Amino acid sequence: MFTGIVQGIATVESLDARPGLTTFVIRFPEGSLEGVTTGASVAINGTCLTVTAQQDNQLWFDAMQETLRLTTLGELAEGSQVNFERAARIGDEIGGHLLSGHIHCTARVVSREQPENNCTLTFEVPEAWQKYLFPKGYIAVNGASLTIGDVEANRFNVHLIPETLRATTFSDIHPGDRVNIEVDSQTQTIVDTLARMGYDRPAG
């Protein structure tokens, strides 16, 4: 499990793309990998990946075809920067909301507005996922736990403070870019349960 509190920015050192499998070598900031061992889980742009090897400040990860299809990891290249979070441990403070690291869909950045000391990003998700969007609800974008601002059909926005921009890769995403989305599990459970009970159908 993860908390959605991004712990820093890592850099793709190299990648080896083979049929159905891509191996990523990612370099992490000094001191951020203490206690990490082979087999550990790390969220890369919100996607839970398993450490397959390590050396100094570098970790190796394998991403299979289905992961590449459902996420933006297949768009990464040498030099790409990514958000990372190590798996939460019992007793850790939950500063965001609980995440599984399983990406539901990708979203497209529709607009970026950046008045002084503020940044508002608007995203568009596939229509099938708009039913999980609620103003003031939780959502994870590239692994960061965020509060939804306004919702209009299958579009929503988030408001980012300077610290969020500093600590994540959001400072470098622009209209047309794609991001990974994990909807809030509690919201998904409630919406799906009500749908099974017939409450999503028009009255009459």
TrEMBL record:
Residues 1-97, 98-194 form the Lumazine-binding domain. Lumazine-binding repeats lie at residues 1-97, 98-194. Pathway: Cofactor biosynthesis; riboflavin biosynthesis; riboflavin from 2-hydroxy-3-oxobutyl phosphate and 5-amino-6-(D-ribitylamino)uracil: step 2/2. It comes from the Bacteria. PROSITE patterns: LUMAZINE_BIND. Transmembrane segments: none annotated. CDD domains: Riboflavin_synthase_like. Its EC number is 2.5.1.9. It is an enzyme of class 2 (transferase). GO terms for molecular function: riboflavin synthase activity. Keywords: Repeat, Riboflavin biosynthesis, Transferase. The keyword Transferase applies. Pfam families: Lum_binding. GO terms for biological process: riboflavin biosynthetic process. InterPro entries: ATP_synth_asu-like_sf (IPR023366), Lumazine-bd (IPR001783), Lumazine-bd_dom (IPR026017), Riboflavin_synthase-like_b-brl (IPR017938). The keyword Lipoprotein does not apply. It catalyses: 2 6,7-dimethyl-8-(1-D-ribityl)lumazine + H(+) = 5-amino-6-(D-ribitylamino)uracil + riboflavin. Catalyzes the dismutation of two molecules of 6,7-dimethyl-8-ribityllumazine, resulting in the formation of riboflavin and 5-amino-6-(D-ribitylamino)uracil. This is Riboflavin synthase. It comes from Marinobacter segnicrescens.
